[in-house]
Amino acid sequence: MKKGRRYSMELAGRTLSVDVGRVAAQANGAAFMHYGDTTVLSTATASDAPREGIDFFPLSVEFEEKAYAVGKIPGGFNKREGKASENSVLTARVIDRPMRPLFPKDFRNDVTLNNLVMSVDPECRPELVAMLGSSIATCISDIPFDGPCAMTQVGMIDGEFIINPSQKQWDEGDLQLTVASTSTKVIMIEAGAKEIPEARMIEAIYKAHDVNQEIIRFINEIVAAEGKQKFTYQSYAVPEEVFAALKELVPQEEMEQAVFTDEKQQREANIAVLTDRVKEAWAEKEDYLAYLADAMYQYEKKTVRKMILKDHKRPDGRKIDQIRPLSAEIDLIPRVHGSAMFTRGQTQICTVTTLAPLSEVQKIEGLDPNITEKRYIHQYNFPSYSVGETKPSRGPGRREIGHGALAERALLPVIPSKEDFPYAIRCVSETFESNGSTSQASICASTMSLMAAGVPIKKQVAGISCGLVTGDTDDDYIVLTDIQGLEDFFGDMDFKVAGTHDGITAIQMDIKIHGLTRPIVEEAIARTKQAREYILNEIMTPCIAEPRPEVSKYAPKIEQIQIDPNKIGDVVGQRGKTINEIIARTGAKIDIDDDGNVSVSSDDKNAIASAINMIRIITTDFEEGQILQGTVVSIKDFGAFIEFAPGKEGMVHISKIAKHRIDHVEDVLTLGDKVTVVCLGKDKMGRLSFSMKDVKQGPYQSA
C-alpha cells in the first residue's frame, strides 16, 4: 500500500492536511485533502497533445458531490448520482475563474481539474477544500501553471467576521464571501451579503487575502518537496512577422475607425471588411492564413486597449464613468403575474415573475443538511438570437446557471419571509439583446418585476459592472463604468456589484490578469456604488417606486394562519382523509408545515375563507356557550350527529332538539339539514354535546 507524504497546517482553528503520492498516482497531479473530517480528492490531468482546430484554452473543472459523503443513498429509480447539481456547477465556476488566467494564454492542451467529495464534515465546507485542492494538485503537477493561488471564505455573524465558517454559519450569517489570491494580488471575489456597507466589504476581502498568504506559503512548501518540472507545450501565439504583415495591410488609424462605434453590428461588419481584405491579400500564404482569426482578434484588442488606456476613448464614445442610455418599463407581458424590462444600451432583459403556493418550492437534494428547499428561484436564459447568432437550444449551460444564481443571490436579502408573504416565487430573466452585463440588467429587471407582481420586497436592488484596462505597471490602469461586450472581451476585469441604497448584496469579479491591487478594488466598488445610486434614483424608482399593494388578479390568492402543531394531525386526518375532504369541498389548496403554519390558496377568496373556517373549527377546543352551524350527518334514536367541518362532529340529544317534546328525531331533522347549535361541553362519554333549543341569537362559526 502506498503511504505517500502528508503535509499539514493550522487553518482557522482546524488542521488542513494534504496527502501527496498516496492515491491517484497516474494523474499529472493529485492532492488528497483533509480538513476536519471533510475529505476531497483533487486531481489535475492534461492531454499529451493540443486539441486541434480551437482558439481557446480547453479547461474543464468538476466538483462531484457523492451522496455517500453525507451517509445517504441517492433518490430516484437508479439510486445513482445524476447530472451535476446547481451547487456543483457554481462551485466549479468559482474554482475555474481564478485559476484559468494563471495558465498560459497560448496553451491548447485539454486540462481537467476534478474534485471528488468523499466525506463532509459540517464544520468544514467541501467547496473550500476543493478550491484549495485544485490549486495544490495543479501546482505540484507538470502542467504549465503560474501559481500558486489560494482561496478563503469569510462569513459574518453579529458583525464579527468568521474565517472559513461552518456550513451552518455560512447559511445563516450575513455574509458569504470567497476570495482567491496570488502571493501579491486578489484574483477573484464572489459574495452574497445582507446589505454590507462598501467599506466593511473591502475590510472582509483583505482579511481573506491575508489568510490566503498563509496558505500560499504552505503550498510553496509542498511544491518545493513534491513539484514536478513543467512540461514544454506547443505554443499557439501569433508570430511577430504575421502581426507586422497585418499592420501593413490595415493601418492603426483604420482599425481605430473600424472599432470606434456604439453599434455592435456595425463594428462587426467593419472588422469583417478588413478581414476579407487581409484574407484576399494572403491567399497564397497559407501559413499566415492559419493565424488570421487570432491575429485580427489580437490587433483589435490591442487597438481598443490603447484607445482606452492612453487616449481615454471608449469604442462607443462614452466618458470613462458614463453609463449607457437606460430605460425601464413594467407590465409589458399580459396575464403573467408580473413583468418588467430593463434596457442598458444594446443589453435588454425582460423578467417575468410567477407566484405559487408554498407547496411548489424547489426541493434540493445535496450535501448541505441545512438547505432542503428553495422558495425564491431566479433563472436566466441566454438565447442565441440575443447576440445575432443561430444555434439550437440545449438547455441552460454553466454560464446561464451562474448568472441566474448571481441575480438570485443579489435579490434574496430583500425577499419577504414566507410568514409575511406565503408564496413560492420564480423569476425568469429572458435576454432579448446582449452587449455586456446582462446579469446585472437582470437584477434591475427582476426587482421591478417583483414589485409589479405585488411582492413586498424590502428595498430595490440594482446591479452594474465595471471593467479595467491595465498597462505595464501597477499604477497604470483605468477603471471603466458599465462595460459593454467589447470592453469585457478585450479588458482585464468584469467586476459586478449589486445592492440597495444601503449596501452590497452580491459581488462577482472575474479577471484575465494575475490579480488586482487594492486601489483598483476600492475604485471599482466606489464606481459601482455611484452608478447603482443613479440607476435606482433616476431609472427604476420613476418606473415603479414601491411594490403594488396586491398581487395580480391572475395570481393565486394565499392566506396563512397559525395552528397548534399538536393539531396538525387533526387537520390532516387518517391517511389525509380530513384535509383531502376540505380540499374537495372548497377547491382550495392547503399546505401545512411542521410549525403549524397553514397556507390556503385559491383563485376564489370565498373558497379560501371557507377552508380556513373549517380548519379553525377542526383545531378549536369548543367551550360551553359557543354557537356554531353544522350539517346533520347521522340520525339515531337518541339524537343526531352534527358535522361542523370534515372530521369534526358533535351530538345533539333528542331532548335538546326542540323546545317541545318530540318522539322521533326524524320529526324535526333530516340528513343534510343545516342547523345552528350551542355547545354544552362534553357528555359522560367525552363526546361534544350540543343543543338546538338553547341557541340564542348571536354570531356563530359555520362550516
Structural topology:
Elements: E1 5-11, E2 14-20, E3 29-35, E4 38-50, E5 59-65, H1 86-99, E6 109-119, H2 126-140, E7 150-157, E8 160-163, H3 167-172, E9 175-181, E10 186-196, H4 198-226, H5 240-249, H6 252-259, H7 264-281, H8 286-289, H9 292-309, E11 326-330, E12 338-344, E13 347-356, E14 362-363, E15 373-374, E16 376-381, H10 398-411, E17 424-433, H11 438-452, E18 462-470, E19 477-481, H12 485-490, E20 493-499, E21 504-511, H13 518-543, E22 557-562, H14 568-572, H15 577-586, E23 589-592, E24 597-602, H16 605-618, E25 627-636, E26 639-645, E27 648-653, E28 674-682, E29 688-691, E30 701-702
Parallel strand pairs: 5-6, 16-17, 25-30, 27-29
Antiparallel strand pairs: 1-2, 2-3, 3-4, 4-6, 7-8, 7-9, 9-10, 10-21, 11-12, 12-13, 13-17, 14-15, 18-19, 18-20, 20-21, 22-24, 23-24, 25-26, 25-28, 26-27, 28-29
Helix pairs in contact: 1-2, 1-10, 5-9, 6-9, 7-9, 10-11, 15-16
